[in-house]
Amino acid sequence: MEKGVSTVKKNILVVDDSALMRRVICDIINTDNVFEATDVARDGLDAYEKIKAKKYAGIVLDVNMPRMNGLELLERLQKERIRATVIMVSTLTTKDAEVTIRAMELGAVDFVTKPSNIVQANGEEFRSNLLAILKAVLKTGNTSSLFTPPPKPKQLFSKSTRSAAVYPSSRGGKKLVALACSTGGPKSLQSVIPFLPKNMDAPMILVQHMPIGFTKTMADRLNQISELEVRECKEGDILQKGVVLVAQGGKHMEIVPCPDGTHKVHLDNSPPVGGLKPYANLTYESLRNSTFDEITCVVLTGMGADGTDGIVSLKKKKKLHIISQDAESCVVYGMPKAIAETGLVNEVVPLTEVAQTIIKHVGVK
């Protein structure tokens, strides 16, 4: 240990009904010089008792367990206002995608893909993903703010907020809103998309780093609580005002201009870039050839710097208005920090002001 560096490690609770998986996850965590995993729980009920008795820097939580599953534990923690930094471990099934999205609504920060066998569990990909997420989310200390109930539609859409008079009128021109986010995004998006009016004078595209299946589940959930139509994009989808198209997990989303002046989605199946697919930089770069008069680029919480290079490249060809989320409201201040450091950002705002900042700029039709 270097001189002057604290030897106190951050304690992580590992919750899984498989003794083998508990051991593998603990071994991975204990290889790092920042964390230690000395406590384990075999189900949500066991974890609940431990969390009440002891404070943990983070919790790695399985979804499917007997007695009390991961979702039930999060519901109890939220109900009793017990704050915790929780990372889910989820398999890539449609059912688990629904549970995982719900878990993030209840305050889980993010999730890692659960290995399907012991070889994968001991592999470098699972190890690096788990440690990277732990390091990123525990660095900011902002995750406790996630343990608040998600907004409900009836709270969002009163008659006064739906009134067109509340929103600025469009200044005309062909506009687009292009948003990118990653770690902490699914919950954060619930503080943005449901607050946008259905008569927003621009189509919207959204890149959230998630695996196949999870993006559709997230889009469906956002659609349930929003005035705008939200759906996972398909090949050839036409961009339309009042519609949010979410990039498919496992595909890169490019936007292609059509002869009639519209724009459509092209799904690119080229390899992941830096482990990311979809990759926001590719989406932003594709917009260089678009016919939009102005593009509002929005960058929310997330690890890394995806989106920055694409926006910088796009800025050379298009008129942009760039909005980034501030550090204090980010789960992980990585992607917004990267774009802010370019000096190109027009507005830095907290999460709760992102929607109104978008509308202030693009207006309603």
Describe this structure in words.
The model is unreliable at 1-5 and 151-165 (pLDDT under 50). 33% of the residues lie in helices and 20% in strands. With 365 residues, it is of the alpha/beta class. The chain has 14 helices and 14 strands. It has helices spanning 19-30, 44-53, 70-79, 94-105, 118-121, 124-140, 153-156, 159-162, 185-189, 214-224, 280-286, 308-315, 335-340, 354-362, and strands at 10-15, 35-41, 58-62, 86-90, 110-113, 175-181, 204-208, 229-232, 243-246, 252-257, 263-268, 294-299, 320-325, 347-349. Helix 2 (44-53) packs parallel to helix 3 (70-79), helix 4 (94-105) crosses helix 10 and helix 11 (280-286) runs parallel beside helix 12 (308-315).
Count of DSSP H/I helices: 14
| Molecular shape | elongated
Unreliable residue runs: 1-5, 151-165
Largest sheet: 7 strands, parallel
End-to-end gap: 60 Å
How many DSSP-defined strands?
A: 14
In terms of DSSP E residues, the strand content is 15-25%
- Helix/strand-derived category reads alpha/beta
Q: Give the SSE order as H and E letters.
A: EHEHEHEHEHHHHEHEHEEEEHEHEHEH
In spatial order, strands of the major sheet run: 8-9-7-6-12-13-14
Quick rundown:
By secondary structure, the protein is α/β, with parallel strands linked by helices. Helices cover 33% and strands 20% of the residues.
Descriptive terms for the model:
single chain, 365 residues, alpha/beta, seven-stranded parallel beta sheet, five-stranded parallel beta sheet, 14 helices, 14 strands, elongated
